[in-house]
Amino acid sequence: MNFRFKAVQTLTLLIGISFILCGCMESRTTMETWNQNQEVLSLPSKNDPELTFGIIYPMVNGTYEMITENAESSASDYNIKLIVQAPDEAT
């Protein structure tokens, strides 16, 4: 029983060290990708062509109004026109 416990403990330790070492090897690639993404995410100038996106809601829901307001405020920062279509509320 004591041998089995030590074997499981050693195996767990080796697997843990392997995970740690594999995670450290990927950090360099992740940082390079992060730096590339920061260059792409710069705000567009007003001379850039306006993009148009649409949101189509399949049903009436009270939270859609808040989502639409947040989307419109975010879209205006990026020179994006937002078109929203939703069904009429049933009365």
Spell the H/E element sequence. Answer: HEHE
Shape: elongated
Distance between the termini: 72 Å
Strand order of the largest sheet: 1-2
- Major sheet, described briefly? 2 strands, parallel
In round numbers, the mean pLDDT is: 76
Low-pLDDT runs: none
Helical fraction equals 55-70%
- By DSSP, the count of extended strands is 2
Strand content: 5-15%
Give the radius of gyration: 26 Å
Structural class by sheet pairing and helices? alpha+beta
Number of helices: 2
Explain this structure.
There is one protein chain. A two-stranded parallel ribbon has the order 1-2. Helix content is 58%, strand content 13%. The longest helix is centred in the first third of the chain and has 39 residues, at 2-40. It starts with a helix and ends in a 6-residue tail after the last strand. The protein is α+β, with helices and mostly antiparallel strands and 91 residues long.
In short:
With 91 residues, the protein is α+β, with helices and mostly antiparallel strands. The protein is built from 2 helices and 2 strands, in the order H-E-H-E.
Helix-strand layout with pairing:
Layout: H1 2-40, E1 51-56, H2 64-77, E2 80-85
Parallel strand pairs: 1-2
Features:
13% strand, alpha+beta, 91 residues, 2 helices, two-stranded parallel ribbon, single chain, elongated
